[in-house]
Design goal:
Shape: globular
Strand content: 15-25%
Enzyme class: transferase
EC number: 2.1.1.216
Distance between the termini: 52 Å
Keywords: Methyltransferase, Transferase
Number of strands: 17
Oligomer: single chain
Helix content: 40-55%
Structural class: alpha/beta
Largest sheet: 7 strands, mixed
Protein name: tRNA methyltransferase Trm1 protein
Radius of gyration: 30 Å
Organism: Dioscorea alata
Number of helices: 23
Strand order of the largest sheet: 5-4-3-6-7-9-8
């Protein structure tokens, strides 16, 4: 009992799902409670991946067995001749030969070959790599909570983190010890030296994953899963466009759809790295949650399929005046004499000046313009989550996100913001139901976006959207604006489409009709990014950690006798405290 207490001294036991970890209050090893959403979503996807992998393996086995049987049936005459000659040999020898001692009776050479092939092709439990483990919580949850998972390898290049990870593995008992192994290694070198070895690779760095992508796409087995997080949202959303281009090879644009564009930039970057090794990606789920983005893609090897990459990428032209946007495909296909050829995309798709407001365009990209989700996978993941509600600590949040994703239009890149349209025209905003009804009544499709509660994804062209808004303004007049304003130029034209604002049946999604919560508030204050491991925690970090964690850290420093650090923090508090006048000081005394 005394030894256990000594082991836990200075540590806090944190339980998440079925795993428990020991966290020291010195912030030596990184841990963020808010990432429970990330970890729960990853577990849900991995469970579905294991299930789908078994189905695909069984289907491929059946296909190969049928192929073998067809080959056997196509040669009946040869088999008959062989049987006749064998019978003649037996009669000539004057004795009957029974089945071979090595073969069971009633088993032909064919079935022996097929069963042997089945033995060699037996599906192994998926091997998972967590490339940046820190405390090892994610790897431990994978090992303890996912049925049918194989070995989980946890890496980190920080000695303190790996020691903490190994301690946590021991703390979680025999299952964790048998399935999870921790190594002190550079993730990039480790993945390069273990090419196509892992069925699933998890990248969850503090910041950008760009430096890990080249080695990550090589370490994933064919048909395997790459799970990748990016937290450098300021870069991906246009705060530093040149930095984004240097890291991801795409130029971002500042727009209401910037978070979805960030997802598509990351997907385009992963595809670019995969293409260098004759590989390509198939996105199954792409999520923007909290303060980060997370993508789940499968990786395959095919030199011919890789040629389709330019068809999945587009440049984005965004008007600086009215925020209208248009997509220009990087490549196209040409069919000639029953042969398919690849060619550069036709362009430009827009003139020098915006046809709606007359302003110039900014150009961004290239981005991934193909679907970012596989709706069949999304439905399976959502069904799995609902069936095991009690196994997900963040059930409410991830089920809400998956429900919204399941209702998105999969083939429509980016989205428009209703409030942004109204801000351009300086008009009152119609309700989302009224606007959606007008789009549907005009013959187009429309859906919500999981990225933004006010985002609307639609296949209607910008001309039709502005016509709908012109009709709305006719019924809800606006004040006169300066003639050079974008809204004034747009409203100066008569609409070619007469909008019908009568409520359409499909104006509400199924989730909205059932009043299912889709966008939930944060469960507690200070729910977001945390201080990087190893950094000294000061009072300026209160907005990230909250006063309780800050006070706990100060108490820990006091127990260790670091009086100088405490004085530094107290001095910092005093320096930020406003000075009191003499009258106020007298009143207080």
């Amino acid at each position: 009992m005394g030894e256990a207490e000594d082991t836990l001294k200075g540590f806090t036991v944190i339980k998440e799902g079925e795993a428990e970890i020991l966290m020291h209050s010195s912030n030596a090893v990184f841990y963020n409670k808010a990432q429970v959403n990330n970890r729960d979503m990853s577990i849900a996807v991995l469970r579905t991946f294991i299930s789908k992998r078994k189905e695909e393996h069984a289907a491929s086995l059946n296909k190969k067995v049928k192929t073998v049987s067809k080959v056997h049936e196509s040669r009946p005459s040869e088999s008959a001749e062989e049987e006749t000659s064998n019978a003649g040999d037996e009669k000539q020898n004057g004795e009957h030969h029974g089945p071979c001692m090595d073969e069971p009776e009633g088993t032909s050479k064919e079935t022996v070959q097929v069963s042997s092939w089945k033995r060699h092709e037996e599906l192994k439990a998926p091997k998972v790599l967590e490339a940046l483990a820190a405390s090892g919580l994610r790897a431990l949850r994978y090992a303890r909570e996912i049925d049918g998972i194989g070995q989980v390898v946890a890496l980190d290049n920080d000695k303190v983190s790996i020691e903490a990870c190994k301690k946590n593995i021991q703390f979680n008992g025999s299952i964790a010890c048998s399935k999870v192994e921790a190594h002190l290694a550079d993730a990039r070198l480790y993945m390069l030296s273990h090419q196509k070895e892992f069925d699933a690779v998890d990248l969850d760095p503090y910041g950008s994953p760009s430096v890990f992508l080249d080695s990550a796409v090589q370490s994933v087995a064919d048909g395997g899963l790459l799970m990748c997080t990016a937290t450098d949202m300021a870069v991906l959303c246009g705060g530093n466009g040149e930095v984004c281009y240097s890291k991801y090879g795409s130029y971002p644009l500042k727009g209401k759809y910037c978070h979805e564009m960030a997802l598509r930039i990351l997907l385009a970057c992963i595809e670019s790295h995969a293409n260098r090794y004759k590989r390509y990606i198939v996105p199954i789920l792409s999520v923007q949650m909290d303060f980060y983005i997370r993508v789940f893609v499968r990786i395959y090897t095919s030199a011919s399929a890789m040629k389709n990459t330019p068809l999945k990428l587009s440049y984005v032209y965004q008007c600086v005046g009215c925020d209208s946007f248009h997509l220009q495909s990087v490549g196209r296909t040409v069919t000639k004499n029953n042969s398919l050829k690849y060619a550069p995309g036709f362009g430009p798709i827009v003139p020098q000046e915006c046809s709606d407001c007359g302003k110039k365009f900014n150009m961004g990209g290239p981005i991934w313009s193909a679907p970012i989700h596989d709706q069949e996978w999304v439905s399976s993941i959502l069904a799995n989550v609902k069936a095991s509600k009690e196994r997900y600590p963040a059930y409410e949040r991830i089920s809400a996100v998956l429900t919204t994703i399941s209702e998105e239009l999969p083939d429509v890149p980016l989205f428009v913001s209703l409030h942004n349209l109204c801000a351009t025209l300086k008009c009152t905003s119609p309700s989302a139901v009224i606007f959606r009804s007008a789009v549907i009544n005009a013959g187009y499709r429309i859906s919500s976006s999981h990225v933004n509660p006010l985002g609307l994804k639609t296949d209607a062209p910008m001309d039709a959207i502005w016509d709908i808004m012109r009709c709305w303004v006719k019924n809800h007049p606006v004040k006169a604006q300066p003639p050079d304003q974008s809204g004034t130029v747009i409203l100066s034209r008569e609409p070619s489409l007469q909008a019908n604002f009568a409520r359409a049946v499909a104006s509400l999604s199924k989730a909205q009709a059932k009043k299912v919560a889709r966008f939930l508030p944060n469960p507690e204050r200070h729910w977001g990014p945390k201080v990087k491991a190893g950094r000294q925690i000061k009072s300026k970090h209160a907005s990230l950690l909250g006063p309780e964690q800050l006070n706990e850290h100060l108490k820990h420093m006091e127990n260790r006798g670091t009086d100088e650090q405490i004085n530094d923090v107290e001095d910092e508090h005093k320096a930020k405290r406003p000075k009191l006048s003499e009258d106020e000081t007298t009143a207080l005394s």
